[in-house]
Amino acid sequence: xxxxxxxxxxxxxxxxxxxxxxxxxxxxxxxxxxxxxxxxxxxxxxxxxxxxxxxxxxxxxxxxxxxxxxxxxxxxxxxxxxxxxxxxxxxxxxxxxxxxxxxxxxxxxxxxxxxxxxxxxxxxxxxxxxxxxxxxxxxxxxxxxxxxxxxxxxxxxxxxxxxxxxxxxxxxxxxxxxxxxxxxxxxxxxxxxxxxxxxxxxxxxxxxxxxxxxxxxxxxxxxxxxxxxxxxxxxxxxxxxxxxxxxxxxxxxxxxxxxxxxxxxxxxxxxxxxxxxxxxxxxxxxxxxxxxxxxxxxxxxxxxxxxxxxxxxxxxxxxx
Length: 320
What we know:
10 helices; 35% helix; UDP-N-acetylmuramoyl-L-alanine:D-glutamate ligase; alpha/beta; 320 residues
């Protein structure tokens, strides 16, 4: 039996944000929270009862411990985190906005403890002792060593019999579509679970069409048994190469868009871990809606709340 239900490798960050109406260049105060796309997934799954481990590297400083403390509260196992006596934590900055402007995200992720990782420093036994290894395309372009570590993680996990989950997660401010396509195509070919946004499918892989056609075309690029395409405010669609499962998005008042994709991924993986992909697609819509209705990248929820929403999706009364 595997030690973990899910493990992942990724960078922990501090997010500095300003509200709509405030420009970063004149900001005097920031709202600070902890972020990290892979840990967002592991954290939500930990909160609903799965045993999840996160490998990363952090500085032994108040900022490094700020990141670790928040993930520890989510229930993630942090025993393999590589602590360094020197180095920095990655940051990113969010400038929220109202129309006609759109929210802007700016990254400061160069030369961090995590981006300086090399393969020999990875606790491979820890990372591959799992039912599912979850990886993200957001990590690949952060450094040359990480561009080698992520595919190596996938190979090692498969060799141990673990499923590999991969979220394309393209960010145009980190690398170009051409760079991303060259690195991602060989990697996604052999994953078991593939997540991709409709816009990423169009921009990176030149895939067009209706949702089912997009999923089927993605299927031509990978051997994945489970494929999931996020349709943004239209919901999501999944395909297990036998059946399609399409779920509309919830009608939700959006408080914060950042982290909704990670929440959706966690919801789907929750269903896969339980042996119910169809329910995972439904759960992914619920967890994405919960993310949109909360501030910060991480979703604070529990199994009972998710099940209640799945069974009574139109209830908005006060629970006393």
